[in-house]
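Dear support,

I submitted the protein below through the web form. The confirmation email said the job was done, but the results page showed an empty box. After a refresh the structure appeared. I'm attaching both so you can tell me whether what I see now is the final result or a partial one.
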Amino acid sequence: MKVLVVGANGQIGRHFVKLLSEDPNHTPIAMVRKEEQISFFNSLNVESVLVSLEESVQEIAAVMAGCEAVVFTAGSGGATGADKTLLIDLDGAAKTIEAAQKTGTDRFLMVSAIHADRREQWGDEIAPYYVAKHHADNILRSSGLAYTIIRPGALTDEPGTGKIQAGENLESGPIPREDVAKVLHYALASEQLHGKTFEIIAGDDEIEDALNRL
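What the results page shows now:
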């Protein structure tokens, strides 16, 4: 499966692209926004395309053409303001969904955030981030695409364990970024997870077992 990875240079994105590069069933295309980010993907023998989420739907669609799936791992980052959060996490996601519809790229995986549907859980400081994730998820769910929305808890840089807890309305908890990438890798080819939205945190279940019970 040829897969466009949006936000490939992020920490989850890098882990995920590396997994795909080692899987003979998939061919990743790394979508990045800066020339200097390309060298990492060259070292993996992975093709890169240079497009920003602030560019047009047509420009995103042009690099998506020919792909069978798109995985959205992009985020504006904690150091930016609410304006960039809306432009990247909300409008960037919306434009990528529209591009997928235009190109017939039916499979769409979205990295969202735990409790994105529970406004009572949103603190004032991080509310713009949750607003963006909440509405981006809803746009995807109404898109007609074969979507899977994955909502991880607090992201950490600890080594992945390959063990998670998955479900709806989980309590907050941490999860290594490496394990989020592993969940994406498994979910990509799982038809059982089409049309599913679920939360993940670190747990005691093997990823495959946890996801197969959803």
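Response: this is the final, complete result; the empty box was a page-load delay. Residues 175 and 201 are 5 Å apart (CA to CA).
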